[in-house]
Amino acid sequence: MISIEEMADALKLLGDKNRLTIVALLNEKELCVCEIVDLLQTSQPNISQHMRKLKDGGLVKEAKKGQWVYYSLNVQDKPYIAEILNQIPSQKDKLKSTVCEENDCCN
Fold this sequence. Notes:
The protein is of the alpha+beta class. The chain is 53% helix and 13% strand. It contains six helices and three strands; from the N terminus they run ααβααββαα. The chain has a three-stranded antiparallel beta sheet with strand order 1-3-2. Helix 3 packs across helix 4. The longest helix is centred in the middle third of the chain and has 13 residues.
């Protein structure tokens, strides 16, 4: 059973608009850092800070593929997060054309 403190910490992470957007995007598919940078129109260091916080909070996991790091959701053990994700507007439209598909930067 999750504690109130653990739940509060996870929900605090989602209280930031950029992190909530990242989680919504990752709810659609696994993404590379460069894709997230492009989609949120911000710097790579900024995204890296958000990803570190989400990873430390146990909401995302990373997988290295060559020199690139890909992120995906890690919320199977957090049904309350899954319920929040069900209420977040879909981000599929934003994912139609990502920088990696256009520039082949992560392949």
